[in-house]
Amino acid sequence: MQYKTKQGVQSENKALEIRSLSLDYIMQDQSIHAVVDLNLVARTGKITALVGESGSGKSTVALAVMGIQDKNAVIPGGEIYLAGTDILSMPKKGLRSYISNHAGIIFQDPIDSLNPLLTVGEQLVEAVLIHEKITKKQAFTIALNQLLAVSLPQPEELMKKYPFMLSGGMCQRVMIAIASVFRPALLIADEPTTALDVTVQAQILHQLDSMRKRDGTAILLITHDLGVVAEIADDVCVMKDGYIVESGTADDIFSNPQHTYTRQLLAAAL
Amino acid sequence: MEVVLAETLNIRKTYEKQNLFTKKRDQVSAVNGVSLKIRKGYSVGLIGESGSGKSTLGRMMVGLETPTEGQALFRGQSISNISLRQMRPLRRNIQMIFQNSSSVFDTSYTVGESIAEVIKNSEKASKKECLEKVETILEQVGLDALYAQRYPKELSGGQRQRANIARALVLHPEFVVCDEPVSSLDYSLRKQILTLLNDLRNKFGLTYLFITHDLSCVPYVCDIMAIMYAGKIVEQIDLKKNSMQNALHPYTSLLFSCIPAKVPAERKKCTVESIIDTTVIPDSKYCCRFFPRCPCCTERCTNEEPLLKEVASGHFVACHIV
């Protein structure tokens, strides 16, 4: 490949590696440093949690990895290695298809992320057809299997339904199905359970857990809820005002927090 | 014996839903015969999933919704079928903290003006008195008095939630319904707001109906926990007499198993089989509404409705198996 690739043997089990990434939002009269010198690794088959308050810049990181940051966002420096290639130094052409082949994203509000005018089936088939040149029938079968994989009951019925007919938890599972159609190396879950009930939250977390075990997907879980992190994450990065203040394995962070901010967060547990 | 402050008598609410194309009318029953007594000074936690009718029950107890059947009482007086004029003097004693703090405030009013409007509605007060009251209540909920001149969009989520609480408490009501006051907030703010609610309760002697879907904040604020499923209360525990861990209903234990672990070492194996949602709630009146999801369902559950029975002092369960 002619692009910068990361040397070394280790790169195989790193689905995502971010090196000293900075990102500024340019406003009319000022610029805001949303992300400053951020280093982060998401390992294959592991769940990496990015924890922080609202406004700490964690969603900005997710958008930057997907290449869908706002127009006024400027990246002055840093490298984002997605599946071994630096996406920031790639030419614009082909960038979108490269990213969408290697990473999927699910958002906080599942009902708003689906197109209200198309049925679940149409949206799934569309996602399949973008990636591969196959007939609609074949795409339909893939879509059906995809719904079964996220353990949604009666997939044939479901394919004909519109998003508003489904509950929040079902919509979120449809989103996971769409995001993982082509077994991406990385799945970014941006606050996937914040808008959901506790019982549904448990289901979605279980879904993510079984997905990384089955497909070996690396999951970057962005959340503000330390309960979710304690339940499911392997690695934890704590983010505050654009900086990562502490990172380590989940056990270390919870049993032996070093940074004052991490201690404050842990003390806020009920 | 404490005074029963708020009470519902076998209250029901059904919504009519009309299909846009077929013009077929459907009835959705949100609350299905709930009798609940809230004594003065107690804080009752009402827990359930979304769609279980807990918010509807809360709104009926404040008088924002009219029940289809049954009555909601406040201090022994029915508030369900009275006119708005009769409601007005009662209103200052019954307030509600709404879930979404950003839609509570008018965006073109300052926070101070919004809160002052509540005062103007129920008593004659000069501008100066109003302002004083607004500033005192803002300080009591932990905001600087200067915030009265700010617009809602200039406040952060936590500050807005505090202002929202200030709006509900400015008249010093006796009974407050808190509809998911912390579920839209950041993790780090949750404890702050709950502590604030506890402090205010001690300060003003408030009575709460605390609506939430998260069991983990229940021991923090509630004296009585009532679990609601599909419009019915399935379990009610007095936490002063019984431990929360003694819960017996299968639905309650399902909710318990969904609380995320506090530390990674406490992770438990997920019992997802029972969680998997068959959101179908049986129509029949003569069955336990939980049976399609229940792991220990028997034939009796499918053809006989369980009633609330007292299994220990202050502990009620509606289940055949218990």
Number of DSSP helical runs of chain B: 10
Radius of gyration of chain A: 19 Å
| Largest contact between chains | A-B, 35 and 38 residues
- The percent of residues in helical segments of chain B reads 25-40%
Query: Number of helical segments of chain A?
Result: 11
Please trace the helix and strand order of chain A, writing H or E for each element: EEEHEEHEHHHHHEHEHEEHH
> What's the order of the H and E elements of chain B?
EEEHEEHEHHHEHEHEEHHHEE
User: What share of the residues of chain A lie within helices?
Assistant: 25-40%
User: What is the residue-mean pLDDT of chain A, rounded to a whole number?
Assistant: 87
The main sheet of chain B orders its strands as 6-7-8-3-9-10-12-11
Subunit arrangement of the protein: heterodimer
Shape of chain A: globular
Count of DSSP E strands of chain A? 10
How are the strands of the biggest sheet of chain A laid out side by side? 6-7-8-3-9-10
Strand content of chain A: 25-35%
Structural class of chain A: alpha/beta
Structural class by secondary-structure content of chain B: alpha/beta
Ends apart, CA distance between termini of chain A: 51 Å
How many β-strand stretches of chain B?
Answer: 12
Stretches of chain B where pLDDT is under 50 for at least 5 consecutive residues are none
